[in-house]
Input
Amino acid sequence: MKYNHFMTQISKKKLANNFEAEVYDIFWSTISRFTNKNEIIIFFSELFTLNEKVNFSKRLSIAILLSNGLEWRAIRDLLKVSEGTIAKISTKTNTEGFRIFFRKLENDARWKAFWKNIAKSYLLTTHGDKFARLGNEGIEKIYFKKKKSLLH
Output
């Protein structure tokens, strides 16, 4: 796979509103008809630059970690992002789009395990002494207690 390592340039010239709306409509209609995960991966791998992929992954990770109750400091250190970036994403996590996303994600056991393991790895790395004292059960009680759903 070939990656573009250059920063994305954004034109200051806006598209006509009706033209932009039509492009979005056609784009989302086409995306909704994808049925093969590999085709989706190929398309978005070729659409996004390397920097856009990194930014997308970090933003999505921030949203997921926030929804799992991880503290901002932990997210900042784990993902190497600024608190400003976390703040921007945190204002969006209770919007309709994220509620839909989290609802779909809640039913995916693989995602739950992945993010819990990421969080535990962070805790082990940054608070190894506490992790050792509390053990896995103590860590579960303190850091992964059942919380109210963000879907309300």
The two ends are 41 Å apart (CA to CA). Helices lie at 17-32, 37-47, 50-67, 72-79, 83-90, 96-106, 109-126, 128-143. The chain is about 70% helix and 0% strand. Residues 14-47 form one domain.
